[in-house]
Amino acid sequence: QVQLVESGGGLVQAGGSLRLSCAASGRTFSSYAMGWFRQAPGKEREFVAAISWSGGSTYYADSVKGRFIISRDNAKNTVYLQMNSLKPEDTAVYYCAADLKPVKPHWVGVNYEYDYWGQGTQVTVSS
After folding, report:
1. Are 2 and 115 in contact (CB under 8 A)?
2. What residues have CB less than 8 Å from 13, skipping those under 6 apart?
3. 31-54 pLDDT, tens per residue?
4. Which of 68, 76, 83, 122 has a Cα at 20 to 30 A from 91?
């Protein structure tokens, strides 16, 4: 079992940066694959990035590749999403998610594959 709490969202101008954090409770955080998803108003939740338990494998949606970086610190039970060169279309509620399955490309971008979810943090990018 793991509980997830996101933070770091806010309002930023286009071209700016934000770093989201997701703090996890539970002793087995280092065993979990972690993902970030986002949901804009009126749209379905979409995959943003994922990272393996060791941090050795990372995956990104094409829309954020080259601008966002996912990382984790297992000693701090925290996963991060560094977001650079933000665009108005990045505006959404951002959620972190966790699952115990070994990370594989065929499922990391599928929201229903993750068992645990945070409450989300709002990111608004103004033009």
Report:
1. no
2. 125, 126
3. 899 999 999 999 999 999 999 999
4. 76
